[in-house]
Structure formats: structure tokens, C-alpha cells
């Protein structure tokens, strides 16, 4: 009896091997099955497992399989790392909320300017594959979608600037560049720095972070989703198997 | 006819046999070579339904099986049904 045949015979459920194992081994010694016989044993083992598997075990196997498939899928996806930095906004005394918003909008427009972003793309060699497939206009649109400028949740009168990219170091470099683009405009037209009480001053509150875990795919979420799906599918499989008469032909 | 349970019952109809003897017997009367997995799947089902039972043997590894009364009844019923189908089919072929 070759190794593969022995292995296939071990795949039968334990109760079955305890009851029929010895006589089955004797049959295999007499019959000396070839590759077709080994396949037949494999098929028989799977059929016997399915015919006698318990509901709970079916559900548990379904859940574990779902979780593993989910986790395996995340390793096939391109990860996205998110780096973020915080810029605080100091407004001159007496300025209204509208003035603050207008200034922020002006500076954001400057930061997201087409020419500046295009320079960034070439400076850091961003979106190499996309640049081969789509026009620069679309690449820049994609980049804009990966940049977020929002009110910082952790500090008052502050902006959080973040950038998502498959490479975490590049994400940090670009975010640093974007953050400093906000600060750059503290300089007046004559070259002097606008830091007086009458000026809008943007200051660095927190430098760009170096992300350790990707924001996409979220492995925990995907694994949980896989677990849930596996549980549901395992339940359905258990119901189908329960409807069949045990060991039906 | 390729239903393995029916082939096993038919093989045991003329006396007790162990697995390999059934395999050879079925091959000779039905020209069907049952694989080991298929044969023992059928044996397991037939024993659970009470249609065959293991019998004591001097060689404890090569376990012979015997058809039970219920197994004989089931086999008779199945073969009669099959016989009707065969007869009808042959008659219709003649008439056509």
C-alpha cells in the first residue's frame, strides 16, 4: 500500500476507522489500488465525512474557513497606508469664522494646485503604474482623492492633512510636503514672514506620522466579515446535510 | 446496473464474502470494478440499514459479510422492479 493510499484511508472519520479500519486495510493489501483506486478512497473519505459531520462542526469549519479565506484575500490586495499631520490656525483678533474659513480655503487651493501636485507626483515618482495607463489629469484627480484636509478631531482650530498611499514611507514624505505647503504661505509677498498679530498664521502642531498598519485592507474587519460569512454558509451547509438521510446512497 | 449497494447485495446473495471477494465477484458477474472507497461506502450503508451483517471469521482482518432477511427482501424487491423495466424496455424495442 503506497503512502498516498494510506493517507487517503486516514481521512475517513475516526468512528469509521475504528469500525472498518482493519478490514479496509486488508482489502487494500489484496486489491492494491492504483491512482484511480486512491482517488476513489479519497472520494469515499470525503463523502463519509460529509455524511456524518455534526451540525456544530460544519458551522465551526465554515466559520474558520471563511475567516482564513478573508485573511488570505487581504494579502492579495494592495495595502494603503495613511500618514497625517496637524496644522494649527491662528487668526488675527477680531476676524470672523467666515474669514478663517476663507483663508483655509485659499491655502488649501494653493496646496492642491494642479502644478504643485504634478511636481509632487514626479518628485516622489508617485502612481507609476497609473501614469502608464491614464492621462495626468486623471492621475492628479486620483491623488486629490487620496488627500484629506479636515478639521482636526484632536485639536481646536487645527487642520488634519493626510495622504493615503501603498508605500508608508512615501505617504509620510508627501504628507510632510503637504503640511509644509500650508506653512509656506505664512511668507508675505515681499518675502517677510507673516507672524504678527494681524496675520493668519499656520503652525505645525504635529508632524506627519509614519504609519505602521495599513488603513486598507483592515485585516481585522475583513477577517470578521469572513467569519460571519463562513458562519452563515456553514449554517446553510449544515441544514442541507441534515436534510439528507445519514449515509444515504 | 451500477448501484454499488445493489451489487454488494447481489454478490452476497449466494453466500458470505469479505471485501476483496465481493470486489472480484462483482467484477465477474457485472463487469463493474468497484473502487475500495465505493465498496466500503456501500458496505457501511448496508450494515447501518440492517441489510447485511458481519459474521465471525477465523481471519479477523478479512471480515466476511452476510445478507440479512431484510436485505434479501430489499434485493428481491429492487431486482423485480429492475426486471420489469428490462422486460418492458426489451418488448418495446421489439415492437418498434
Oligomeric assembly: heterodimer
Percent strand of chain A:
5-15%
- Most residues in contact, chain pair and counts: A-B, 28 and 23 residues
Number of helices of chain A: 10
* Inertia-based shape of chain B: elongated
Q: How are the strands of the largest sheet of chain A arranged?
A: 2-3-1-4
Count of individual helical segments of chain B: 4
The N- and C-terminal alpha carbons of chain A lie at a distance of 27 Å
Radius of gyration of chain B: 15 Å
Low-confidence stretches of chain B: none
Order of helices and strands of chain B: HHHEEH
End-to-end CA span of chain B:
24 Å
Q: Spans of chain A with pLDDT under 50 lasting ≥5 residues?
A: none
Proportion in helices of chain B: 55-70%
Report on this structure.
The complex is a heterodimer of chains A (249) and B (96). Chain A has 249 residues and is α+β, with helices and mostly antiparallel strands. Helix content of chain A is 60%, strand content 12%. Chain A starts with a helix and ends in a 6-residue tail after the last helix. Chain B has a two-stranded antiparallel sheet with strand order 1-2. Chain B starts with a helix and ends with a helix. Classes of the chains: A alpha+beta (249), B mainly alpha (96).
Task: Show the helix and strand layout.
The complex is a heterodimer of chains A (249) and B (96).
Chain A: H1 3-10, H2 14-31, H3 35-52, H4 55-76, E1 81-90, H5 97-111, H6 114-123, H7 128-133, H8 136-146, E2 147-151, E3 158-165, H9 168-184, E4 201-206, H10 219-243
Antiparallel strand pairs in A: 1-3, 1-4, 2-3
Helix pairs in contact in A: 1-3, 4-10
Chain B: H1 4-12, H2 19-30, H3 36-48, E1 52-54, E2 65-67, H4 69-95
Antiparallel strand pairs in B: 1-2
Helix pairs in contact in B: 1-2, 1-3
Amino acid at each position: 500500500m503506497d503512502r498516498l493510499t494510506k493517507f487517503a484511508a486516514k481521512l475517513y472519520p475516526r468512528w469509521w476507522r475504528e469500525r472498518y479500519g482493519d478490514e479496509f486495510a486488508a482489502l487494500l493489501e489484496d486489491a492494491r489500488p492504483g491512482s484511480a483506486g486512491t482517488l476513489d478512497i479519497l472520494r469515499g473519505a470525503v463523502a463519509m465525512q460529509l455524511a456524518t459531520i455534526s451540525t456544530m462542526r460544519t458551522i465551526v469549519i465554515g466559520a474558520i474557513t471563511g475567516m482564513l479565506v478573508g485573511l488570505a484575500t487581504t494579502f492579495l490586495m494592495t495595502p494603503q497606508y495613511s500618514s497625517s499631520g496637524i496644522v494649527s490656525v491662528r487668526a488675527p483678533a477680531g476676524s470672523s469664522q467666515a474669514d478663517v474659513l476663507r483663508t483655509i480655503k485659499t491655502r488649501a487651493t494653493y496646496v492642491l494646485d494642479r502644478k504643485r501636485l504634478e511636481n509632487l507626483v514626479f518628485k516622489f515618482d508617485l502612481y507609476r503604474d497609473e501614469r502608464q495607463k491614464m492621462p495626468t489629469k486623471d492621475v492628479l484627480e486620483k491623488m486629490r482623492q487620496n488627500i484629506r484636509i479636515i478639521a482636526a478631531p484632536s485639536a481646536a482650530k487645527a487642520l488634519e492633512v493626510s495622504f493615503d498611499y501603498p508605500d508608508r514611507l512615501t505617504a509620510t514624505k508627501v504628507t510632510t510636503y503637504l503640511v509644509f505647503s500650508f506653512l509656506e504661505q505664512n511668507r508675505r509677498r515681499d518675502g517677510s514672514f507673516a507672524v504678527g498679530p494681524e496675520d493668519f498664521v499656520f503652525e505645525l502642531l504635529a508632524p506627519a506620522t509614519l504609519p505602521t498598519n495599513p488603513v486598507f485592507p483592515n485585516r481585522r474587519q475583513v477577517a470578521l466579515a469572513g467569519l460571519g460569512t463562513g458562519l452563515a454558509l456553514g449554517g446553510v451547509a449544515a441544514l442541507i446535510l441534515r436534510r439528507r438521510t445519514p449515509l444515504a446512497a | 446496473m451500477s448501484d454499488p449497494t445493489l451489487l454488494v447485495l447481489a454478490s452476497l446473495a449466494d453466500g458470505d464474502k469479505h471485501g476483496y471477494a465481493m470486489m472480484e465477484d462483482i467484477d465477474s458477474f457485472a463487469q463493474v470494478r468497484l473502487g475500495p472507497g465505493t465498496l466500503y461506502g456501500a458496505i457501511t450503508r448496508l450494515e447501518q440499514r440492517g441489510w447485511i451483517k458481519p459474521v465471525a471469521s477465523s481471519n479477523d482482518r478479512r471480515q466476511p459479510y452476510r445478507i440479512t432477511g431484510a436485505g434479501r427482501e430489499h434485493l428481491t424487491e429492487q431486482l423485480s422492479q429492475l426486471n420489469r423495466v428490462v422486460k418492458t424496455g426489451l418488448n418495446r424495442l421489439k415492437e418498434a
